[in-house]
Amino acid sequence: GYTLAARGHHVEATVRVRNFGSFAMRETVQVYARMPGGALRLVGFQPITLQPGEEGRVTFELGFEALGTMG
User: Fold this and answer.
1) How far apart are CA 28 and CA 30, in angstroms?
2) Are the beta carbons of 57 and 21 closer than 8 angstroms?
3) Is residue 16 within 8 Å of residue 57, measured between CB atoms?
């Protein structure tokens, strides 16, 4: 799941990530924004390490300038 919230001059996006596997994992969570015309642009990424069965949260602070070309 995820949440989005406007916070002053940025948008805060929080993503829940869970390791359903039997081994520790290291993943990179990526956030994309859809631009006018439908193209996707990578606007944030962050690695996370989780043990088996563990759940974590990754929060991104995305400045409006990074999203400035959105309609």
Assistant:
1) 6
2) no
3) yes
**Structure token digits, residue 51:** 């043990």
Residue 54 DSSP label: -
Q: Is 20 left (phi over 0), alpha (psi -120 to 50) or beta?
A: alpha
Tokens coding 6: 């406007």
Using one digit for the tens of pLDDT, what is the confidence trace for 11-57? 899 999 999 999 999 999 999 988 888 889 899 999 999 999 999 99
Compute the residue count for the chain: 71
DSSP state, 35?
Answer: P
This prediction's pTM: 0.75
